[in-house]
């Protein structure tokens, strides 16, 4: 049914190709003309999908990944989100999974067999490391961790059986930026698949596939959804072979994101650029304030010119987001925890990317294997939400006076 007044599908596709990312966010993953002109794609819930006859059934069985086939393979709501993300990430296709961590584990499992070797940055999100140590090792995959700031630590660990290099840039605890171009070149030379957790920057501020990365992973739980009420992961790949391999693993393992989550992520995507702009500018203002505060020994924010990784950040990223860390001079856990407990606006909790500011004490020393953490003071990671930034600075300032 044609609805007058809205742009046609072909016009919409042409617009997507010629517009900037912020504009694309409102054009992608929707076909209002195919749904009575309704602005957002509906939530399709299904397990069973019916086929008209056995000929149609057989046709569908040989084309499972390209049509609505069975609930676990995705619904039209899942496909709308996947299409939107593939467009923004500049990938071949995207696969939605039930969480950020399942996107990571499914991607890793897709290319590793017994006897293979995998290289993972020592500064990644700890559950990624845990998956590698507890599950990959158990099934006979050898894992080594490399120092993301020392490319020779990566080079010397490449073996004939190395199948994957897994990056997280910046690291979501300590914000190291990796030399992505050099790493992807090295990987190509050695026929290694590269993966990068892009949850911090989102495809709005960094497009890994444009830099030669094969698989870009998003915990859509964070900024894409943006309201701390969704668990979801997104895997975007460079080509059809990578797609088939990863999609096959996802459906075989039985991973299946809910259509409601996909709908919420797609809705979150529409406001991503304005939310990120507030997170970006607010976090930078607080980071600068912390840099000049005598209680703080170091601020770990990649977009601050004083940061040792600033040049690399500038090379790859078009914006920074709301998550960064700082190190207090204070070394007493009791005193720091008292300070945290006195905060009124910064809430204590895991994850990030929502509208509310969060704070978390973190202890990287325990988790590091090769990139040793020698800082003495306590590291606090904060996520700067959408509140008024002066209110947030006052909250920190009052707590620091304790
Ligand atoms: C960098 C990063 N990647 C992946 C994840 C995992 O996402 P999820 O919580 O959706 O499993 C997280 C969660 O905190 C994260 O911080």
Features:
single chain; 402 residues; alpha/beta; Aspartate Aminotransferase, domain 2; Aspartate Aminotransferase, domain 1; 2 domains; seven-stranded mixed beta sheet; five-stranded mixed beta sheet; 12 strands; globular; disordered N terminus; binds pyridoxal-5'-phosphate
How is the topology of this model organized?
Blueprint: H1 9-18, H2 21-27, H3 54-61, H4 76-89, E1 93-97, H5 100-109, E2 117-121, H6 126-136, E3 142-146, H7 151-155, E4 162-168, H8 180-189, E5 193-197, H9 202-205, E6 215-219, E7 233-237, H10 240-253, H11 259-270, H12 272-291, E8 296-300, H13 310-316, E9 323-328, H14 333-342, E10 347-348, E11 358-362, H15 364-367, E12 379-383, H16 389-400
Parallel strand pairs: 2-3, 2-4, 4-5, 5-6, 10-11
Antiparallel strand pairs: 1-7, 6-7, 8-9, 9-12, 11-12
Helix pairs in contact: 4-11, 5-6
The structure holds pyridoxal-5'-phosphate (PLP).
CATH class of the largest domain, please? Alpha Beta
Shape: globular
Largest sheet: 7 strands, mixed
Overall mean pLDDT stands at 96
Give the low-pLDDT segments. 1-5
Fraction in helix: 25-40%
CATH architecture assignment of the largest domain: 3-Layer(aba) Sandwich
Q: β content, as a range?
A: 5-15%
CATH-defined topology of the largest domain? Aspartate Aminotransferase, domain 2
Q: If helices are DSSP runs of H or I spanning 4 or more residues, what is the number of helices?
A: 16
Strands in their spatial order, largest beta sheet? 1-7-6-5-4-2-3
State the end-to-end distance. Answer: 65 Å
The radius of gyration computed from the alpha-carbon positions, rounded to a whole number of angstroms, is 22 Å
Number of strands: 12
């Amino acid at each position: 049914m044609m609805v007058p007044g809205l742009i046609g599908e072909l016009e919409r596709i042409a617009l997507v190709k010629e517009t900037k990312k912020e504009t694309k966010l409102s054009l992608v993953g929707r076909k209002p003309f195919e749904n009575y002109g309704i602005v957002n794609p509906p939530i399709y819930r299904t397990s069973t999908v019916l086929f008209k006859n056995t000929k149609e059934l057989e046709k569908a069985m040989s084309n499972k990944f390209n049509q609505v086939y069975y609930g676990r393979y995705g619904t039209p709501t899942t496909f709308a989100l996947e299409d939107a993300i593939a467009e923004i990430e500049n990938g071949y296709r995207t696969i939605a999974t039930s969480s950020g961590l399942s996107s990571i584990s499914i991607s890793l499992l897709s290319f590793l067999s017994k006897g293979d070797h995998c290289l993972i940055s020592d500064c990644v999100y700890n559950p990624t490391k845990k998956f590698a140590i507890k599950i990959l090792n158990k099934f006979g995959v050898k894992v080594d961790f490399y120092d993301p700031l020392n490319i020779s630590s990566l080079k010397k660990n490449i073996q004939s059986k190395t199948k994957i290099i897994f990056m997280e840039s910046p690291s979501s605890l300590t914000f190291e930026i990796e030399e992505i171009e050099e790493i992807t070149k090295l990987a190509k030379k050695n026929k290694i698949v590269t993966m990068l957790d892009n949850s911090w920057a989102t495809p709005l501020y960094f497009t890994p596939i444009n830099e030669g990365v094969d698989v870009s992973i998003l915990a859509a739980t964070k900024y894409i959804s943006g309201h701390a009420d969704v668990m979801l992961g997104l895997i975007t790949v460079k080509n059809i072979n990578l797609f088939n391999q990863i999609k096959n693993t996802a459906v075989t393992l039985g991973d299946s994101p809910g259509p409601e989550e996909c709908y919420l992520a797609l809705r979150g995507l529409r406001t991503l650029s304005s939310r990120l702009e507030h997170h970006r500018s607010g976090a930078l203002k607080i980071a600068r304030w912390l840099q000049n505060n005598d209680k703080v020994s170091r601020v770990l924010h990649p977009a601050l010119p004083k940061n040792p990784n600033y040049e690399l950040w500038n090379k790859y990223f078009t914006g920074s987001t709301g998550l960064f860390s700082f190190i207090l001079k204070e070394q007493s856990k009791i005193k720091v925890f008292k300070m945290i407990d006195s905060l009124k606006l910064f809430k204590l909790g895991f994850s990030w990317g929502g509208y509310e500011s969060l704070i978390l004490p973190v202890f990287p020393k325990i988790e590091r294997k090769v990139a040793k953490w020698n800082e003495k003071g306590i590291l606090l990671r904060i996520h700067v939400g959408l509140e008024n930034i002066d209110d947030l600075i006052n909250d920190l300032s009052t707590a620091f006076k304790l």
